[in-house]
Design brief:
By secondary structure, the protein is mainly α. The protein has two domains: about 180 residues, Leucine-rich Repeat Variant; about 50 residues, SH3 type barrels (Roll), CATH 2.30.30. It has a two-stranded antiparallel sheet with strand order 1-2. Helix 4 runs antiparallel to helix 5.
């Protein structure tokens, strides 16, 4: 019993570390990739990113020492400000306005979608505030074309489950996410399935997918998969 408690605390810490390390924009698995650094805020972005995922500034291609055309930068700034005009995510989060955050998950701007999912996860993880109405919307975001939006959504699903709000309808989407091209999505999908299993929600359809993850090229993903499989089998046995 004590061992289980200590083990679970370790995985809680791992989960929180991964969550906070992403917020610091220093995800360890991306260290080996030639990232683009934002000159405005210092955030590291994916190599093919055109705009900073934190502040929205236009990113310069590596090796481009020029400041770029001033008019183009001004235009990108205007587009950034216009796309999020009237959306105060921090205010919505402070007010625990889950229903409005749910609506923003359908926003045309991917940054708003990301921030809305991220905020729902934060509310569940840090404040214990969550509502089952968020789950269908978050499930839908697992099909989003942007990998960071998918990552934010799958992470939020796991965080809601940790707060006691979970739904079996998430399982098919999480199973698909186990094969996502983005390592962050795969890893958080594995851990979200564990969180659901700990909430008493599991389905045997996840086992074949998780067994494939045991061959993932990243050690952490494989380690998370091993733990999730054990948790899943225990839940299925009842």
């Amino acid at each position: 019993m004590l061992f289980n408690k200590v083990r679970d605390q370790i995985f809680f810490k791992n989960f929180r570390y991964l969550r906070e390390s992403f917020n610091r924009k220093s995800y360890t698995y991306l260290d080996e990739i030639d990232m683009k650094e934002c000159k405005d805020c210092g955030t590291e972005n994916d190599p093919d990113a055109q705009f900073c995922k934190r502040c929205g500034e236009k990113l310069m291609s590596k090796g481009d020492d020029s400041e770029g055309d001033e008019a183009t930068l001004d235009k990108s700034q205007e587009e950034k400000e216009g796309s999020t005009a009237g959306v105060d995510i921090e205010k919505l989060k402070a007010e625990h306005d889950i229903q409005t955050l749910n609506k923003l998950l359908d926003h045309q701007d991917k940054k708003v979608r990301f921030d809305a999912a991220d905020s729902l996860g934060d509310l569940a993880w840090y404040d214990g505030v969550a509502d089952e109405s968020s789950i269908p919307k978050l499930n839908g975001l697992l099909d989003d074309p942007d990998p960071e939006v998918r990552m934010s959504a799958v992470l939020a699903i796991g965080q809601l489950a940790e707060a006691g709000v979970a739904d079996k309808r998430s399982i098919p989407k999480l199973n698909e996410a186990l094969e996502d091209e983005d390592i962050r999505v795969r890893e958080f999908a594995v851990d979200a399935l564990r969180s659901l299993a700990e909430s008493g929600i599991a389905d045997k359809s996840s086992l074949p997918k998780l067994n494939k993850v045991l061959k993932d090229t990243h050690d952490e993903v494989r380690g998370f998969a091993e733990n999730t499989i054990k948790k899943l089998k225990k839940t299925l046995r009842g």
